[in-house]
């Protein structure tokens, strides 16, 4: 039976029987039967056999499936020993969905697609050898972390590591456009190139002059940001990897930009086709001043980026609107228009109800806690990357007069469930830091010099987490409870501490720090003040019990780290970010990211083969009460959990809010009716802002007919 022959297989049928309860009981054992059948009927008979791993590697290199350079950094005997070590860990998939996702999306296949050339063990082996870059000890450590599913590289890294015919290892990119035609043209080319190699692209348009603004040397006026959005959308549609996927892009605009209403209207269902954008994601950057004006029900002024740049000599994104708002209002040389702040707030809520957009970046919040010199001006396609950028300036020959810094996202994730059983939590995180360091060091996106420049200066990565709800439920803790908040806070404190320790160690080994380290709060030691002033040891007995075998740094440990960092520096400018991982969490058999599950038994529509059912990991009679769907939960609990993690995360967390179109009575005390309203979304956004949340990703609404609005997601970060 070939891989493409699905006529006589039983595993889909067995999996579907999960959705047919008997005597009110979910038939969970059917998933195990489907898993066994999948290996018997699909994997085992269709896996190409080799006498040894050495023979397999030689074949893969000879047939151009595998690169040879990274293999040649090791002795064959070591590779055989490492492979034997991986086999001895006796890895097993725990669900049909996990195995199906891996073999369908990640396993290397023959060119005709009829045979598998690797299983999980070989994929782990090649990841470990590739990311260790010839270091045998690090290779064994990386293999140990991945095969025990404590560490999961992001899809581009996990999928492509070692392959001869591969895309980039990087998940996504951020680029900034300045207010001139050369920058627009260069950015469109950058979007084409970055989409071609596989990453989702975030683009800031906030610096562009508004519709109606003057154009020096020409009669007439500028067309504003909307036509530029259309150019980017067409670019992504064209550069779609030979039709394998839709090019993915997100555009960001400052909420005080005069084109903000037109920008938002491009996503409305009834928008004119001339302005409607179908595939671009929309995001807005929101300074604190907007929340103040909306709270007071005051007018708000929208300021011309063109006149602001003329007056201050800085692109619009680099003006602190909150600080200079009154000054901008009073200045007669600044072109401005006036609208009601609450009218705009209502428009945002309406669009979020209709489409899930826009993403919201609380830009002052992000910058206020940013320990690095410079300014954050935007985010990425999934709203978790928040890094400083410097604008580029380009002449008429398309040469860089000044080469600024843009961003590439190098992502990976811890698995909370398995990390909590790690024999050495700190060693696990330090190993992940080494693996991600290789990704950032080896990335070289030559087609976009500003991305190369940013990556070489910053050496950034984003290590996150998945499986938080799985861990809490399996330990009989309700998501959003006091125990869950304290657990989340300490878990991310540990990630922060150990990535700092290892980044400091790498800086010491290499004698190199990230650019402008000396201007950072790390260098002057002030970053560490909160860890020296507050006791972060667990207070709740349940949380103490969970961490009883795990080292939690004391104030003395933080003091020692502070002194080490001030002396030798940090290699990485940024280290932590939580992406909205999806399919990759199925392979890990845990809930996605750190948000709650949406269904106890999830129904997924898979191309060609129909529906697959995935019971929440660890679902059983005694855990069912703790697996509350996000759609049945007060979203303030989700915001509280994300706020607990945010305290220790130097970048962002991709926070999705889940609501029903008809909200169950009693969920929110302010509601007298069940129908979701724009006021609900406004209250939740303001609650998130007041809790110190840096970004809100999608608003996902579950409708009466079982559909989800705002459910489309970025493949680069999600899988």
From TrEMBL:
EC number(s) recorded for this UniProt protein: 1.17.4.1
Highest taxon above the source species: Bacteria
InterPro entries xrefs: NrdE_NrdA_C (IPR013346), RNR_1b_NrdE (IPR026459), RNR_lg_C (IPR000788), RNR_lsu_N (IPR013509), RNR_N (IPR013554), RNR_R1-su_N (IPR008926), Rrm1 (IPR039718)
Molecular function GO labels: ATP binding; ribonucleoside-diphosphate reductase activity, thioredoxin disulfide as acceptor
GO biological process, one term: deoxyribonucleotide biosynthetic process
Gene3D superfamilies listed in its UniProt record: 1.10.1650.20, 3.20.70.20
Pfam families, sorted: Ribonuc_red_lgC, Ribonuc_red_lgN, RNR_N
GO cellular component terms given for this protein: ribonucleoside-diphosphate reductase complex
Reactions that this protein is recorded to catalyse: a 2'-deoxyribonucleoside 5'-diphosphate + [thioredoxin]-disulfide + H2O = a ribonucleoside 5'-diphosphate + [thioredoxin]-dithiol
Keyword line: Allosteric enzyme, ATP-binding, Deoxyribonucleotide synthesis, Disulfide bond, Nucleotide-binding, Oxidoreductase
Start and end residues of each Ribonucleotide reductase large subunit domain: 558-580
Annotated SUPFAM superfamilies: PFL-like glycyl radical enzymes (SSF51998), R1 subunit of ribonucleotide reductase, N-terminal domain (SSF48168)
CDD domains: RNR_I
Role according to the record: Provides the precursors necessary for DNA synthesis. Catalyzes the biosynthesis of deoxyribonucleotides from the corresponding ribonucleotides.
Family the UniProt entry places it in: Belongs to the ribonucleoside diphosphate reductase large chain family.
Protein name, as recorded: Ribonucleoside-diphosphate reductase
């Amino acid at each position: 039976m070939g891989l493409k022959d699905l006529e006589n297989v039983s595993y889909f049928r067995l999996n579907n029987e999960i959705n047919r309860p008997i005597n009110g009981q979910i038939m969970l054992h059917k998933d195990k039967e489907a898993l066994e059948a999948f290996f018997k009927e699909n994997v085992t008979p269709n896996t190409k056999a080799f006498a040894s791993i050495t023979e397999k590697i030689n074949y893969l290199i000879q047939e151009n499936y595998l690169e040879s350079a990274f293999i040649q950094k090791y002795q064959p005997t070591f590779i055989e020993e490492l492979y034997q070590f991986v086999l001895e860990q006796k890895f097993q998939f725990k669900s049909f969905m996990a195995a199906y996702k891996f073999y369908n999306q990640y396993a290397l296949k023959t060119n005709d697609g009829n045979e598998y050339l690797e299983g999980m063990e070989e994929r782990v082996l090649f990841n470990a050898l590739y990311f260790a870059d010839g270091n045998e000890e690090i290779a064994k450590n990386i293999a140990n972390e991945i095969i025990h599913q404590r560490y999961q590289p992001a899809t581009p890294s996990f999928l492509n590591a070692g392959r001869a015919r591969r895309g980039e290892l990087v998940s996504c990119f951020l680029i900034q456009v300045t207010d001139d035609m050369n920058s627009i043209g260069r950015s469109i080319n950058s979007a084409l190139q970055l989409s071609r190699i596989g990453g989702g692209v975030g683009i800031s348009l906030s610096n562009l002059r508004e519709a109606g603004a003057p154009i020096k040397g020409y009669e007439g006026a500028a067309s504003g940001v909307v036509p530029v959005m259309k150019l980017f959308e067409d670019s992504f549609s064209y550069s779609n990897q030979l039709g394998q996927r839709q090019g993915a892009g997100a555009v960001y605009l400052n909420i005080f930009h005069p084109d903000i209403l037109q920008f938002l209207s491009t996503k409305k269902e009834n928008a004119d086709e001339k302005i409607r954008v179908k595939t671009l994601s929309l995001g807005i950057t929101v300074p604190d001043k907007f929340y103040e004006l909306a709270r007071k029900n005051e007018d708000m002024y929208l300021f011309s980026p063109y006149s602001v740049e003329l007056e201050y000599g800085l692109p619009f994104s680099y003006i602190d609107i909150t600080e200079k708002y009154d000054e901008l209002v009073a200045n007669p040389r600044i072109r401005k228009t006036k609208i009601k702040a609450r009218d705009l707030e209502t428009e945002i809520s309406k669009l979020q109800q209709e489409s899930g957009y826009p993403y919201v970046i609380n830009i002052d919040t992000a910058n206020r806690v940013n320990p690095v010199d410079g300014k954050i001006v935007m985010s990425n396609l999934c709203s978790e990357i928040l890094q400083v950028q410097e604008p580029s300036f380009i002449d008429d020959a398309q040469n860089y007069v000044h080469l600024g810094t843009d961003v590439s996202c190098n992502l990976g994730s811890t698995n909370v469930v398995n990390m909590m059983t790690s024999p050495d939590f700190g060693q696990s995180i330090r190993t992940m830091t080494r693996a991600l360091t290789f990704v950032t060091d080896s990335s070289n996106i030559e087609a976009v010099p500003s991305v190369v420049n940013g990556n070489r200066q910053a050496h950034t990565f984003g290590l996150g987490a998945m499986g938080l709800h799985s861990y809490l439920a399996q330990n009989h803790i309700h998501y959003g409870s006091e125990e869950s908040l304290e657990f989340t806070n300490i878990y991310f404190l540990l990630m922060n501490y150990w990535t700092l320790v290892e980044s400091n160690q790498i800086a010491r080994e290499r004698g190199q720090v990230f650019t402008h380290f000396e201007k950072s709060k790390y260098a002057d030691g002030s970053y560490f003040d909160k860890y020296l002033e507050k006791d972060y040891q667990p207070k709740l007995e349940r949380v103490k019990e969970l961490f009883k075998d795990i080292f939690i740094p004391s104030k003395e440990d933080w003091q020692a780290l502070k002194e080490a960092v001030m002396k030798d520096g940090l290699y990485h400018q940024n280290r932590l970010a939580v992406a909205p991982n999806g399919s990759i969490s199925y392979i890990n058999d845990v809930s996605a990211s750190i948000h709650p599950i949406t269904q106890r038994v999830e129904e997924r529509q898979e191309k060609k083969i129909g529906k697959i059912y995935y019971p929440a990991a660890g679902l059983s009679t005694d855990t069912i009460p703790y697996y509350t769907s996000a759609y049945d939960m007060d979203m303030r609990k989700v915001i509280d959990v994300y706020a607990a993690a945010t305290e220790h995360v130097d970048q962002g967390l991709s926070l999705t809010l889940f609501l029903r179109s008809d909200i169950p009575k009693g969920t929110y005390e302010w509601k007298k009716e069940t129908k979701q309203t724009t006021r609900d979304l406004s209250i939740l956004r303001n609650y998130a802002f007041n809790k110190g949340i840096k970004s809100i990703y999608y608003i996902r609404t579950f409708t009466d007919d079982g559909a989800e609005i705002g459910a489309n997601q970025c493949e680069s970060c999600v899988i």
